UniProtKB/TrEMBL annotation:
Residues 53-135 form the CbbQ/NirQ/NorQ C-terminal domain. It holds the Pfam family CbbQ_C. This is CbbQ/NirQ/NorQ C-terminal domain-containing protein. InterPro entries: CbbQ_C. It comes from marine metagenome.
């Protein structure tokens, strides 16, 4: 039913609604009510294994396999920092952004800094921790 018009729209038998929802992503004020969540099935997604993520980074960014492999390792190590105060780990998307910068000639450490480190946190201590991890991979 459309409340404003008082009309009812009939859905086709083949109609399917797909909703993407990241619990806790924005704020507790925007969480779905339990009664609403119970109307959907849920699928949990995890980061791809390192070898698959390497392929994705290389294909989507155009960077070398060596850089893509290093970025996948960096992403994995940064995600472990979630247990130490980092709100969200490095997404494959951020790793691809860094790979694109590298493929354009930006140094790996600088690309990681601007595409990953500064994007993930404003906290200077966490930034230093991530940059140390990055430096250990991109010497």
């Amino acid at each position: 039913p459309v409340e404003k018009t008082g009309s009812i729209i009939e859905a086709d038998d083949r109609f399917l609604l797909c909703v993407s929802y990241n619990p806790g992503y924005q704020s507790a004020l925007k969480d779905l009510k339990h009664s609403t969540r119970q109307r959907f099935i849920s699928i949990e997604f995890y980061y791809p294994p390192a070898d698959i993520e390497t392929e994705i980074i290389q294909r989507e960014s155009g960077c070398s396999k060596e850089h893509a492999d290093a970025l996948a390792k960096l992403g994995e190590k940064i995600r472990n920092l979630e247990e130490h105060g980092l709100q969200e780990g490095a997404s494959t998307r951020l790793l691809i952004y860094a790979g694109r910068l590298m493929s354009e000639g930006i140094s790996p450490r600088r690309a990681s800094q601007v595409a990953i480190v500064w994007t993930l946190t404003d906290d200077p201590e966490l930034q230093r921790s991530i940059e140390e991890v990055s430096s250990s991979i991109f010497e």
